[in-house]
Amino acid sequence: MEIPGYTVVRELSKGGMATVYLAVQDRLNRQVALKVIEPALEDDENFAERFIKEGRISIQLKHPNIIALYDFNSHGHYYYFSMEFLPGGTLAERIETGLTTEHALVIIKQIAKALAYAHQFGIIHRDVKPRNILFRQDGTPILSDFGIAKMMDAEATQLTASGIVMGSPRYMSPEQISGKTLDARSDLYSLGIVFYEMLTQQIPYHSSDAINLALMRCAEPSPELPSDFGKFQPIINKLLAKNPEDRFDNAEQLIDAIERIETGQCLDPRSVDRSLPVVSLITAAPKIPPTPSAPSKTVRSKTALVIGSLLILAVIVVTGAYLFRVRPSLVPDSEIRQSSPPAPAERSASAIHYERLAMESLQRGEWEPSLELIGLGLNATPNDDRLLALRDRVQKYQQAAHWLAKARERQQQGALDESLKLIERGLQIAPDQPDLLKLRDQLEVRAKLEQIANQYADWANDALTQGDLRKAEDYLAQLSQIKPDHPRLPILKRDLQAKQEPVTTAIQRRMEETPRQQMDEELKRRMEAEAKRKTEEEIKRQAVEEAKRKAAERTRRQVAEQPKQQTATPDTGGNNNRRCGDILSRLTLGEPVPDEDRTFLSKRCR
Questions:
Q1: Centroid of chain to Cα 260
Q2: Residue 268 catalytic?
Q3: Of 128, 134, 147, the residue nearest 185 (C-alpha)
Q4: How do residues 262-306 score in pLDDT, each as one tens digit?
Q5: Exactly one of 26, 127, 183, 485 is catalytic; which is it?
Q6: Nearest 5°: phi and psi at 306?
Q7: 111 with 65, same domain?
Q8: Which domain holds residue 68?
Q9: In what order do the strands lie in the sheet with 6-14?
Q10: Over the stretch 25-53, which tens digit does the pLDDT of each residue have?
């Protein structure tokens, strides 16, 4: 991957929406964290517009505890953010090794200050968690990814165009899980989970199932801190309140509450100053104008995404209706008394006594003791209408409890439909039996979850059939979060792996073959260069030999053509000529010639 102006060094981390690389900004020669958004997100029609708007907002956030955003841009299919590189690790790593209470308080206050600053601009983080809290080299905690999670959303809720709920389920607020409008208090809830984890090294709610986690988050009471941290319990209770109205209105109030505890003051949650306004995303954040939808690439994918959004919205509505409705564990005593026949003016004391005792057993769910007490009362007053009506009710509850036990057994076996049928049989006998009503609500939520899980399984299967492995992997990731024990999940994962292996193998083969090909090409180039050099040297050698041969031949011819000089001593002249020819031949062939011969040649040879 190449981004103009940056040299990518290595991958730092990879998430569902983006990959972060360590890179060097060439012009300034500084290390940066380069966050590259997944290319698949560009299919979202409004993505580019939201990317630009949110980039402009985020780059204006200048705070010592918020990560510095240097630049944002796009290149080809890649949209990226250039950010400050933070080498000090994450809060998740420090929680794992353990934090002192003092250090935890320093961190939570500084992150709260970062949130307070951003909330003033109407920017909500939406994904406050330990892995998004990083540290500079000097130990300063930094909140990262500001504006990026929000940038992914088309509206103010956490539902994306693909029907996927944004955020990390372990740290999401109840209203975020339910897809409701969010404000600054949602971030404070997430920060409360982080604070609890810093103190205890545990998260307050544990479940491997996303829906179970949502049910626990929305229905169970605020977690209790260990006794050593009891003084912080009012802060935890306020941060993790189910209703946003019961939380701190803003981060400044949280900081004030912590500082009061640090100075030894006793914190009364009801006395927290609520004068500061709540910053709402809807009123403070810049609006993104709606744009006409362009035709999708395929009708099927568009329809699938719409169906996904509707399904998830449906299950959230059903879940919310169940979770925020308070069902009593048993029918209230007052309701039973009001539905009973009126008591006669002169009712016996024993009937009143046994009715009261039977009602107490009924409230404890003790059917047999309740019936025994009613029997004792009827022995004394056989025709007491209230005792007879109460006996009829208890007997119905007892029968309904039988169907409840069977329904729970079938639920544990995974037969939700059969369990719902058994519940309906129990409700026909006792329509107001509270445990049956509660279990029915839970199973209806799970049935909706099953419907969504099956839809994701179908989408993943279709993507595999069409060869779209990236989309299949995304769908299976969502299926793993929603229902990790879905029966089709291991089969689909195996099919995906089988299709990915040839691709991976081909990539690895190409990676392995590339160096080998380069080595072969280099060896071939060197051999050709060596052969060329030897050929050139041989041609040069032959040219020199030919030149020597021709020079010698020319010299011999010249000597042969010279006229014989008539002298008194002919033999001496012939000897001189032969010696001259011999010296010239040696000079022509490049052989060594003594100075004496050279002198002879210059004086005697003409």
A1: 37
A2: no
A3: 128
A4: 988 766 544 444 433 333 333 333 333 333 333 344 434 444 444
A5: 127
A6: -65, -45
A7: no
A8: 6-84
A9: 6-14, 18-25, 30-37, 78-84, 69-75
A10: 999 999 999 988 876 555 565 666 777 77
